[in-house]
Amino acid sequence: MISHLVVLSVLSTHKVLGQMVAPVGGTSIFWNPGPRYGCYNWVQEGASGAVNPEKGVDCAPFLNPSNTRNQSRADSCVSFVNDVNGSPTCPTWQFDTWGWSYAAGQLNASPGYAGTFSSGSVMLRNSARDTTDCGLYEVTLSYQYWPGAIIKYVTGDFSRETNLDMAAHFVVEYDVLIESDPTALAGPRGNCNGDQRRFLTTDFIYTFGDQTNLLSIVHFNPTNLGPPIVPWTQNTTAGCRFLVQLPQYTIQEGVQTHIGLDFKTLLQTAGTNTCHPNGLPADIWPQAVQIVTSNVGTNMVVHLSNVDAQLASSTTPVSSGSAPSSSTSPPPPPSSGDTQVKFGQCGGQAWTGPTACAAGTTCQVQNIYYSQCLP
């Protein structure tokens, strides 16, 4: 599996829900409908061995190479290859954890973590409020392509391997509800030096050449953590990791919200932060799609449904919390004459929102894509 990628983030207090998208003419890259049938694995990241034996109860139909169960395609491992020994290798739905220990009895405990599949919906619980340290704890829903496993089925053509070259758009979408919790921050350790993290992100992990890269989009951070936590980027010869906050993708707790991210467009605009400054390279392979809760001294319960990732010929705008719009024109951007709040975005390449900052803050350049109102 992919090793844990520690990402730190910030979110503007500017609560503009903004414009999401939905795929048009799309084909899912998900090989099995795990959330529908309760098929999943638990994986404890940062630990070796079979430290978390919990699994779903109905994975057998998807783990049998001779399976012909049809969910709009031939759900069979024979449509995958393994670079090591040539045998079929299936991608899987996973609950991933970081910081928590199954051996210590923290599954379905508090402090602790939990994850459930029920009638196509997924619940993630990350209860770190009453921990005795200020460590980072994560609970993640992940669709994971294991090393060497690449899907070949796209619109009936098994001779082609799935990569982002195959369509104009790559859209990850789902519906999400973060439970309102007025006691989520009332932990015993204070504010952990200002870091009371309570984040929700959508992560896309992908490879090209010999690099493994991550682009992470922040949706929720009610404690409004500021620098130096973000912008966060790490570029090495092994790959680039970039976490970005964009107001149009933020959500609020207690509100059912539709998330729709065109990662191909996002990757095209991320530039040097994602190790391909001259545009998208050829042969970008999906490695994992993840929905991540990250907590330091806080609690969080998230409900997910209708999770999908599609290669699509086009997209249509979707207002957060609504069904896809019949219009193909996005709403007008906020006026550049408005005043941005503290820690809000105030500039960057293609930014059309407020450029003036609230009293006591100034607009400071973080990178060519993001400037922020900082004290």
TrEMBL record:
<dbReference type="GO" id="GO:0030248">
    <property type="term" value="F:cellulose binding"/>
</dbReference>
<dbReference type="InterPro" id="IPR000254">
    <property type="entry name" value="CBD"/>
</dbReference>
<protein>
    <recommendedName>
        <fullName>CBM1 domain-containing protein</fullName>
    </recommendedName>
</protein>
<dbReference type="GO" id="GO:0005975">
    <property type="term" value="P:carbohydrate metabolic process"/>
</dbReference>
<feature type="domain" description="CBM1">
    <location>
        <begin position="338"/>
        <end position="374"/>
    </location>
</feature>
<dbReference type="Pfam" id="PF00734">
    <property type="entry name" value="CBM_1"/>
</dbReference>
<feature type="compositionally biased region" description="Low complexity">
    <location>
        <begin position="313"/>
        <end position="328"/>
    </location>
</feature>
<dbReference type="GO" id="GO:0005576">
    <property type="term" value="C:extracellular region"/>
</dbReference>
<feature type="signal peptide">
    <location>
        <begin position="1"/>
        <end position="18"/>
    </location>
</feature>
<dbReference type="InterPro" id="IPR035971">
    <property type="entry name" value="CBD_sf"/>
</dbReference>
<keyword id="KW-0732">Signal</keyword>
<feature type="region of interest" description="Disordered">
    <location>
        <begin position="313"/>
        <end position="343"/>
    </location>
</feature>
